[in-house]
């Protein structure tokens, strides 16, 4: 067993619609450096590095693909791009299962929830079966996604593991595709989803915790009490512009408020955990220029997202922070085993 001083490695992923591509590009940059010098058969994937991955909305879907489905990062990115295109490409109409034309964007301005469900299920089927449960009692990487209960607007965490401090009512019922659908059910774009025998309804967790950094720290403390933590938090860029034509001003203002709150959460957590910062145990990466005009659903702006993220990653200050982050990760991985997965060094 490794030293008690070795910190847990935790990955926190913000929400942000199609701008989740930026999250994946940042993570690819980090993992590429970590894998330098390794042979192809010993290269690490995120599920082998991080004990826990938590995410909201876009970040939640990515967390499940990387941590629960244990997809290769490259495959996850390809699936994510395909997912975004199939959901957010505007079409005049499409044929439903009964052969009737159906508008892709509904009269109330929302995108078709069935298209989202179909796309998510296809991703799950590439790895296993459509009915796979989110729960995985002895999984090598613990995963949670953030949703919000429609009835009372309270946050709800859907987990692949049991949290000893909570009721875990949906643990034995929630399917992987349902968890993805729940965390990404932004009320601006998609209808809520019902899960479980009680028919509980959930919407996108972004309205409460678009940046889940506080939650991942809390969850890790519940599962591994007293352990030191290393947290890598990745955002999806600065505040969005208009989501799409025809939306109400209140919705636009709401999205901007979410983006503002996301960075306030990051800043508050930073100030509240100065010791982590000083010991290189807390890192936040978030593109601060070039994404503000891109709405959450604008798939056509993928190239702009990639350009802005690449410029950000090559910026001097970002490079300095990347070096410190990767160095701390590499040092911690070196204390683990099983091709570097630190979680194998702890009893869970």
UniProtKB/TrEMBL annotation:
Active site: 57 (nucleophile), 204 (proton acceptor)
Transmembrane segment boundaries: none
Placement of sequence motif GXSXG: 55-59
Annotated CDD domains: Pat17_PNPLA8_PNPLA9_like3 (cd07216)
Motif (GXGXXG): 15-20
Domain of life: Eukaryota
Motif (DGA/G): 204-206
GO cellular component, one term: membrane
Keyword Hydrolase: yes
Keywords: Hydrolase, Lipid degradation, Lipid metabolism
Name listed for the protein in its UniProt record: FabD/lysophospholipase-like protein
Organism: Sporormia fimetaria CBS 119925
């Amino acid at each position: 067993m490794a030293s008690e001083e070795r910190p847990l490695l935790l990955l926190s992923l913000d929400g942000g619609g199609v701008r989740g591509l930026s999250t994946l590009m940042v993570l690819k940059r980090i993992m590429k450096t970590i894998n330098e010098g390794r042979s192809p058969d010993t290269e690490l994937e995120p599920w082998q590095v991080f004990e826990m991955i938590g995410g909201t909305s876009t970040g939640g879907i990515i967390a499940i693909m990387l941590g629960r489905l244990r997809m290769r990062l490259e495959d996850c990115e390809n699936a994510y791009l395909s997912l975004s295109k199939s959901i957010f490409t505007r079409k005049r109409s499409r044929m439903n299962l009964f052969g009737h034309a159906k508008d892709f964007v509904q009269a109330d301005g929302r995108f078709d929830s069935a298209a989202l469900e179909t796309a998510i299920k296809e991703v799950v089927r590439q790895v296993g079966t459509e009915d796979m449960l989110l729960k995985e009692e002895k999984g090598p990487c613990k995963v949670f996604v953030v949703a919000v209960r429609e009835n009372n607007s309270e946050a709800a965490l859907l987990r692949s593991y049991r949290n000893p401090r909570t009721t875990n009512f949906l643990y034995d019922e929630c399917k992987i595709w349902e968890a993805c659908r729940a965390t990404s059910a932004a009320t601006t774009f998609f209808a809520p989803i019902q899960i479980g025998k009680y028919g509980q309804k959930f919407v996108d967790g972004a309205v409460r915790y678009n940046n889940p950094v506080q939650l991942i720290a809390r969850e890790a403390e519940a599962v591994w009490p007293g352990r030191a933590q290393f947290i890598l938090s990745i955002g999806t860029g600065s505040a969005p512009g208009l989501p799409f034509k025809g939306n109400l001003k209140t919705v636009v203002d709401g999205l901007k408020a979410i983006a503002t709150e996301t960075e306030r959460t990051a800043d508050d957590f930073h100030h509240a955990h100065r010791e982590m910062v000083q010991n290189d145990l807390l890192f936040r990466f978030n593109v601060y220029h070039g994404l503000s005009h891109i709405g959450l659903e604008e798939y056509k702006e993928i190239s702009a997202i990639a350009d802005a993220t690449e410029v950000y990653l090559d910026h001097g200050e970002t490079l300095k922070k990347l070096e410190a982050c990767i160095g701390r990760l590499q040092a911690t991985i070196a204390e683990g085993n099983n091709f570097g997965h630190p979680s194998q060094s702890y009893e869970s």
